[in-house]
Automatic annotation (TrEMBL):
<comment type="function">
    <text>Is involved in NO detoxification in an aerobic process, termed nitric oxide dioxygenase (NOD) reaction that utilizes O(2) and NAD(P)H to convert NO to nitrate, which protects the bacterium from various noxious nitrogen compounds. Therefore, plays a central role in the inducible response to nitrosative stress.</text>
</comment>
<dbReference type="InterPro" id="IPR017927">
    <property type="entry name" value="FAD-bd_FR_type"/>
</dbReference>
<keyword id="KW-0408">Iron</keyword>
<feature type="domain" description="FAD-binding FR-type">
    <location>
        <begin position="154"/>
        <end position="258"/>
    </location>
</feature>
<dbReference type="Pfam" id="PF00970">
    <property type="entry name" value="FAD_binding_6"/>
</dbReference>
<dbReference type="Pfam" id="PF00175">
    <property type="entry name" value="NAD_binding_1"/>
</dbReference>
<feature type="domain" description="Globin">
    <location>
        <begin position="4"/>
        <end position="140"/>
    </location>
</feature>
<dbReference type="InterPro" id="IPR008333">
    <property type="entry name" value="Cbr1-like_FAD-bd_dom"/>
</dbReference>
<keyword id="KW-0813">Transport</keyword>
<dbReference type="InterPro" id="IPR001433">
    <property type="entry name" value="OxRdtase_FAD/NAD-bd"/>
</dbReference>
<dbReference type="InterPro" id="IPR009050">
    <property type="entry name" value="Globin-like_sf"/>
</dbReference>
<dbReference type="InterPro" id="IPR039261">
    <property type="entry name" value="FNR_nucleotide-bd"/>
</dbReference>
<keyword id="KW-0349">Heme</keyword>
<protein>
    <recommendedName>
        <fullName>nitric oxide dioxygenase</fullName>
        <ecNumber>1.14.12.17</ecNumber>
    </recommendedName>
</protein>
<keyword id="KW-0479">Metal-binding</keyword>
<dbReference type="InterPro" id="IPR017938">
    <property type="entry name" value="Riboflavin_synthase-like_b-brl"/>
</dbReference>
<dbReference type="GO" id="GO:0008941">
    <property type="term" value="F:nitric oxide dioxygenase NAD(P)H activity"/>
</dbReference>
Length: 404
């Protein structure tokens, strides 16, 4: 366990909050510039988050949150867990941390200039290594859990695509089985797989995709939305076929559906955000007597993925579904057993009329949708502890993003 930070170090770090508020993004952009100059380190990152600026922004928010909460680090437990889960998925190891520390401290000194006194730099070095030790310790625990789990593994494992299915005009599912023919670790609904990919003309790439199948000791399934200009998603749609081999790390992530302790759950999603929820509802049988509501927004009939699955689950009494079409309701969509179709988007006004304060709300989707829905639920009086959500993208902490 890392030794606690001394009072002087914590005082100096807190005093840097105004500087981080003003220059945090400049610092993290400079840090990544330095860090990614090393090809071996660069290959550990999802470079799309560098191009759109998401990763530097996420790290700037995380560093700011660390400084603000340096006296109450327990407030950052959720953020730390999300980061460590991401790191394990990407196979980040203790030997990578000195590279990050050198780049971060160098960036602080570069951006702050003369204001980065030796005293400040010493405090930030101590603060960085304290947090690094916390992350390394938790990651070690997760790696050990993966290695000990039935079907578990550490590092990259070879999987073969054994089937491909077109779920909608823009979403395609890939069922994966290990090439060694041995069992796989059962995932928890809501977890994701991380991939180490070699894309022709684009080199090494890292991506995370939510698992969209029910837990199994035999295989996994991911469902990939083809993004305009998306290097990896386009490669999955255009080049990955049955028999393609992929390098995969063990399931990770803490955004998991706790069916044992959730008698009432509302899954609220838009677009590709439904994939972790498909895994969750597929794992529930009709005799479990759960109260599940599935609310999803899509564009039109051709983008409505997993519609047959939802209708089947609704028909068997597993859930009640509300499906929204932002373009128009398809002509063949008629309200059926436990399924209702709506025109337009999921709005704050509509959601406010549907609130069940005793339910756990699980949200996943585009950032703007998430912000609106979280704000609506909080305003409507849903306890914060009952609102669980995950943003797409980098290892940014959802609470931080929601507060921006």
């Amino acid at each position: 366990m890392a030794a606690p930070l001394d009072d002087k170090t914590r005082s100096i770090v807190k005093a840097c909050v105004p500087a981080l508020e003003a220059h945090g993004l400049d610092i993290t952009q400079e840090m990544y510039k330095r860090l990614l100059a090393d090809p071996e380190i660069r290959d550990l990152f999802n470079m799309s988050h560098q191009k759109d600026g998401e990763q530097p922004k996420a790290l700037a928010l995380a560093v700011l949150a660390y400084a603000r909460n340096i006296d109450t680090l327990g407030n950052l437990g959720g953020m730390v867990e999300r980061i460590t889960q991401k790191h394990v998925g990407l196979n980040i190891l203790p030997e990578h941390y000195p590279f990050v520390g050198k780049a971060l401290l160098g960036a602080i000194e570069h951006v702050l200039g003369d204001a980065a006194t030796p005293e400040i730099m010493e405090a930030w070095a101590k603060a960085y290594w304290f947090l690094a030790d916390v992350l390394i310790g938790r990651e070690k625990q997760i790696y050990e859990e993966h290695e000990a789990a039935p079907g578990g593994w550490v590092g990259w494992r070879s999987f073969r695509v054994r089937s491909v299915k077109q779920e909608s005009s823009i979403i395609r599912s890939f069922e994966l089985a290990p090439t060694d023919g041995k069992p796989v670790m059962k995932h928890l609904p809501g977890q994701y797989l991380s991939f180490k990919l070699e894309i022709p003309e684009h080199g090494s790439q890292r991506r995370n995709y939510s698992i969209s199948s029910a837990p199994s000791s035999d295989h996994y399934r991911i469902s990939v939305r083809k993004e305009d200009g998306g290097v990896v998603s386009s490669w999955f749609h255009d080049a990955v076929r049955e028999g393609t081999e992929l390098q995969v790390s063990a399931p990770a992530g803490d955004f998991v559906y706790d069916s044992a302790n959730e008698q009432k759950t509302v899954f609220l999603s838009a677009g590709i955000g439904l994939t972790p929820f498909i895994s969750a509802v597929d794992a529930v049988s009709a005799d479990e007597k759960k109260n599940i509501r599935f609310i999803h927004g899509t564009h039109a009939a051709d983008t409505n993925a997993f519609s047959a699955d939802i209708q089947k689950l609704a028909g068997s009494g597993v859930l009640q579904a509300d499906i929204f079409f932002s373009a128009r309701i398809p002509s063949d969509a008629t309200n059926a057993s436990n399924v209702r179709y709506h025109a337009g988007r999921i709005t704050k006004d509509w959601l406010t009329t549907q609130i069940d304060p005793g339910a756990v709300y699980r949200l996943c989707g585009p950032d703007a949708f998430m912000r609106d829905m979280v704000d609506t639920l909080k305003t409507a009086g849903v306890p914060v502890a009952n609102i669980r959500y995950e943003f797409f993208g980098s290892a940014a902490d959802a609470e931080l993003l929601a507060a921006v």
